[in-house]
Amino acid sequence: MTWHTPLRFRRVCPLLVETPRGLRCSVNAPEVRPFWYRMFGYYGAAIAALYLAAAIGVFIFLRSIGYPITIVHLVWPGSWHHVTEARASYFLERSQRAFAAGRPAEGVLYLSNAYEFDPANATIGLALAQTLQLGQPARSNEIYRRLMSGHPATRAVIAQSWFRALLARGDFAGVQSLARTQVVEDPTQAGVWMRALVFATRQTRNRVPLRELQESSASPARRWRPVVETEILLQAGKKSAARASLEQTWSNIPPYGYYYQLNELIALGEGLAAIDLLGKYGGQIDDTARATLLLEAYATLDVPQSRQRLVDALLSSPLNLPTVNLLAAHLIRHPDRAILDELFTAFARAKFSVGADNLESYLALYCAAGVAGDWGKLQTIATAIRQRGSGSSITLSLAEAFFRGQTTQTRIAGLLPALPMPLEVHYALLEHYPGSRDRSK
User: Is residue 345 part of a domain?
Assistant: First the structure.
């Protein structure tokens, strides 16, 4: 600021001397040499000082707000991206506090801000998509699509989350589209996607995705051909041809293919044939699927003694959560007060604490009690769940009103997004309540 004085110019040109006639060069013209490094040094130091002062000022301001950043994030240009990440982290923390305090609208706002500042963060994007799935499904779907295309390494995980959101809110066309793609692209979870595709196709009655899969030359699609061809026959009403296909011994198909075959045989009234094939397949069907199929066969064949013996065997060992989920899903499909009493007694005896790890099982048993109309058990479970916070209380009240037929919500899909439960329980509820419920009942 003081370089307006001519003599100051000697800082960058030391050859200058002061004479009565003003500043003059102290050497002959041929001997003059430049001193650019001095000029760049002075100006560079001044600019660096101003830059550092500005960075420190911004750092102090941001730290006073609460952004988790360091001075390096502001000073070094290569670390500037950490500033936006820190802002996203700050709003994510504020969002978590708001949700914990029972302020969902504020929580959604902060979570949206966090994703806006760091759209490359898959964790934040997934949290926002899951939060918006009920109130803003279109925006939720858009975020899921962006995550699917922008994060190929975690695409399979994102697709699973999206699928559960679509299924829970009854968006069967969305499930069908996603499952059709993932059957081919995600072979490790192909059984999950094939079952989703079959279930959604039955709801939409649009067999085009099945025919596309049938005609596909991709290796993962060819493995599902027996399932796809049989399902097309069933949906076309050609039960005799479908039964002939199902009664054959299938081979070289994914595990879900065997489950599908036996389950459809049971649905067609061929429970004994299904049980015979179940014995032939042996280890190709896991224990959970085996128990599920046997319970379904016994209920369909109306052999309560066999069904009760299997339930007793499942409950004879120390109760675990997968068994609770399995029996709850079965009781939703085939309500039985005696089995519900036995399961509820064993569940109470096990004394599972209500927490993130077992809330799904509490809700599964809650829904089984609701379907059976056992309001005493339903209230007992609800009381235990409500201890987790006020947010659960509203959801449980709406669910109870639905089971009692006393709510304006007539579709179970309107409640499922707020009820985190095992996938099998969601399927069971959607099968038990396939459409709108008559409120007069």
Answer: yes
Answer yes or no: is 107 within a domain.
Answer: no
Q: pLDDT at residue 23 above 90?
A: no
> In the block, which residue shows the tokens 């128990």?
291
Query: What is the distance between the alpha carbons of residues 433 and 441, in angstroms, rounded to a whole number?
Result: 13
CB-based burial of residue 65 (10 Å sphere; 0-12 exposed, 13-18 middle, 19+ buried)? exposed
Tokens matching residue 248: 């054959």
Mean pLDDT of the chain: 87
What does the pLDDT average to over 196-206?
A: 93
Q: Are 324 and 364 in contact (CB under 8 A)?
A: yes
In which domain, by residue range, is 395 found? 314-441
- Residue 250: CB partners within 8 Å, gap ≥ 6? 226, 257, 258, 261
Cβ-proximal residues to 214 (8 Å cutoff; 6+ apart), any chain: 221, 225, 228, 229, 232
Q: Which residues pair with 202 in a beta bridge?
A: none
Phi, psi angles (nearest 5°) of residue 407: -135, 160
Say if residue 17 is exposed, middle or buried (CB neighbours under 10 Å; 0-12, 13-18, 19+).
Answer: exposed
Query: 13 falls in which pLDDT band (50, 70, 90)?
Result: confident
Q: What's the pLDDT band for 326 if we cut at 50, 70, 90?
A: very high
More confident residue, 396 or 439: 396
Compute the radius of gyration of the chain from its Cα atoms.
33
As to burial, measured by CB atoms within 10 angstroms (0-12 exposed, 13-18 middle, 19+ buried), residue 383 is exposed
Cβ contacts of 157 within 8 Å, gap of 6 or more: none
303 assigned to some structural domain? no
| Rounded distance between C-alpha atoms, residue 73 and residue 62, angstroms | 11
- In the DSSP assignment, the letter for residue 318 is P
User: Of the candidates 172, 167, 176, 187, which has an alpha carbon nearest to the alpha carbon of residue 209?
Assistant: 176
In a domain, 239, yes or no: no
Domain-ending residue, one of 57, 78, 99: 78
Would you call 3 helix, strand, or coil by DSSP?
coil
| Number of domains present in the structure of the chain | 2
pLDDT digits (tens, 9 = 90+) for 47-86: 888 888 887 887 787 767 677 767 766 667 766 666 666 7
Q: Which of 39-48, 206-215, 312-321 is predicted least confidently?
A: 39-48
* Last residue in a domain, options 20, 49, 78: 78
The DSSP string of 155-205 is HHHHHHHHHHHHHHTT-HHHHHHHHHHHHHH-GGGHHHHHHHHHHHHHHH-
